[in-house]
Specification:
It is built from ten helices and six strands. With 309 residues, the protein is α/β, with parallel strands linked by helices. The chain has a six-stranded parallel beta sheet, sandwiched between helices. Keywords: Signal. Pfam families: Abhydrolase_1.
């Protein structure tokens, strides 16, 4: 009787072992990651945005992909065009509202694309949220300015800038909806070389937060792969050389301006792809999916967040 019981025990244990192993191996790779906040850039939008623009996804589905891999992701909206400081206050309010609604009191990871990296930095450094942020990752963010912003300020005479800004702001209100006060001139000043020099002087890194940066650039400004950024690339290259930032750029931001904290590089792609531009790197309007492994790149960034929490 004892032998039969022992035999039954060993048979049961042997049958259970592969089931347990399978269960462990099937866990999602981003399970257990602190919630990830996606901070959009200039003229960007979030999952709670209104207006015509809300019918498409700013992040091109990468937010849903990260969720499918076990991450909790929130992509709030901010004013489409305004200063780093104003957008930072809106981002803070959105994060705290989300935390209260979900009864979450822990830390977050933040991924900011373009200007979204600047308002995230300001929020962490100056608005008291450093204790709630584990990592801050910036993506193609103009930490030292964008030559395109400087060119626009130089080319447009001072007397006409408010008129042009009002036209831009009116168009933004039509496309984006909502009641947020747009300020295109404040946004423009926030992205110039001089504006970022001043910004960096009062926005230091916080010791309890780990900073990482990723970026990309165009290798050949062909208009097939880069229909918009390919047009801007030569001007950005010329401006970058004039400002001492180098010619290599993504259409809007020099590669040298994208580096902040620990530089992690950019996405990999095949020999037929002529680089990854400013919009493709965020997969805005799914513009990057044809040219590089978007899901692999975002998994890499999210895995780095998890490893550093």
């Amino acid at each position: 009787m004892i032998r039969k019981s022992l035999l039954a025990f060993f048979v049961t244990a042997m049958m259970a072992t592969p089931v347990l192993a399978s269960s462990g191996s099937s866990s999602k790779p981003l399970a257990g990651t602190y919630p990830i906040i996606l901070s959009h850039g200039l003229f960007g939008w979030g999952e709670n945005s209104g207006g015509i623009i809300s019918i498409v996804n700013y992040w091109g589905g990468t937010d849903d992909y990260l969720r499918s891999q076990g991450a909790t992701v929130y992509a709030p909206s901010k004013t489409a065009a305004n200063s780093n400081e104003v957008r930072a206050a809106e981002l803070k309010a959105a994060i705290l509202t989300y935390a209260a609604a979900t009864n979450y009191s822990g830390k977050f990871h933040i991924l900011g694309h373009s200007q979204g990296g600047l308002d995230s930095r300001y929020m962490v450094s100056n608005l008291g949220l450093s204790s709630r942020v584990a990592t801050l990752t910036t993506l193609n963010t103009p930490h030292y300015g964008s030559p395109i912003a400087d060119i626009i300020k130089t080319v447009l005479p001072g007397w006409i800038q408010p008129f042009v800004a009002s036209i831009v702001e009116t168009l933004v209100k039509v496309v984006y909806g909502g009641t947020n006060q747009q300020n295109a001139l404040a946004a423009l000043s926030s992205l110039t070389k001089e504006g970022l020099s001043t910004f960096n002087s009062y926005t230091p890194n916080q010791s309890g937060v780990k900073y990482f940066s990723y970026g990309s650039y165009i290798t050949l400004p062909d208009l097939i792969q880069h229909p918009l950024m390919g047009i801007l690339h030569p001007a950005c290259a010329a401006g970058g050389l004039f400002q001492g930032q180098g010619a290599t750029n993504d259409g809007l931001v020099p590669l040298s301006s994208q580096k902040w904290g620990t530089w992690k590089g950019g996405p990999s792609y095949g020999i037929l792809t002529t680089g990854v531009d400013h919009l493709q790197v965020s997969n805005t309007l799914r513009s990057g999916s044809l040219w590089y492994d978007v899901e692999g790149f975002y998994m890499n960034m999210a895995s780095n967040m998890k490893a550093n929490q």
